[in-house]
Amino acid sequence: MKIIVTSIFVNDQEKAVKFYCDTLGFVKKHDVPAGEYRWIALVSPDNEHGTELILEPNNHPAAKDYQQRLFTEGIPVTMFGVDDIESEYQRLLDKGVKFTMKPTKMGDVTIAVFDDTCGNHLQIIQQ
């Protein structure tokens, strides 16, 4: 068994596509209408057949509440691995990304946390 899809609730799918693709560097694998919303699946450009990240609309009250509570508490909704956190941190800063935690060593890993502009905190990690 393996993970093939995971999702993140976003408050604006179009804004999320721009941030996750243009700023973070993911690529669209699927973008199809799904009622009033879209089924948007992103993948890493290094692994286009890998795990898909779905940009899920937070239109359900439970999803919206869940997302807002995690954001208010500063809890990242997911974690993305990077090879060089310092260079990735600088690259994202140069693109205007707002970090809530600069790269911080925690045992054998270094992490940083930032705002995705769509209602979430995300974490990058170098192992």
Summarize the structure.
The chain is an alpha/beta fold and 127 residues long. 27% of the residues lie in helices and 43% in strands. It has one domain: 2,3-Dihydroxybiphenyl 1,2-Dioxygenase, domain 1 (Roll).
Describe this protein with a few key phrases.
127 residues, 2,3-Dihydroxybiphenyl 1,2-Dioxygenase, domain 1, 3 helices
Describe the structure.
The structure is a single chain. With 127 residues, the chain is α/β, with parallel strands linked by helices. It has a single domain, classed as 2,3-Dihydroxybiphenyl 1,2-Dioxygenase, domain 1. Helices cover 27% and strands 43% of the residues. It has three helices and eight strands, in the order E-H-E-E-E-H-E-H-E-E-E. The strands form two sheets. The protein has a four-stranded mixed β-sheet. It has a four-stranded mixed β-sheet with strand order 5-8-7-6. Strand 2 (27-34) and strand 3 (37-43) form a beta hairpin. It is globular and about 45 Å long.
Overall strand count: 8
Structural class category: alpha/beta
Topology as a string of helices (H) and strands (E)? EHEEEHEHEEE
For the sheet with most strands, the description reads: 4 strands, mixed
Q: Please, how many helices?
A: 3
Low-confidence stretches: none
Q: Which percent range fits the helix content?
A: 25-40%
Q: Tell me the span between the first and last alpha carbons.
A: 24 Å
- What is the alpha-carbon Rg in Å? 15 Å
CATH level 1 name: Alpha Beta
Shape by Cα distribution: globular
Instruction: Please name the CATH topology.
Output: 2,3-Dihydroxybiphenyl 1,2-Dioxygenase, domain 1
Strand content: 35-45%
Mean of all residue-level pLDDT scores: 97
What would you give as the CATH superfamily? 2,3-Dihydroxybiphenyl 1,2-Dioxygenase, domain 1
Count of all domains = 1
Strand order of the largest sheet: 1-4-3-2
- Which CATH-level-2 architecture? Roll
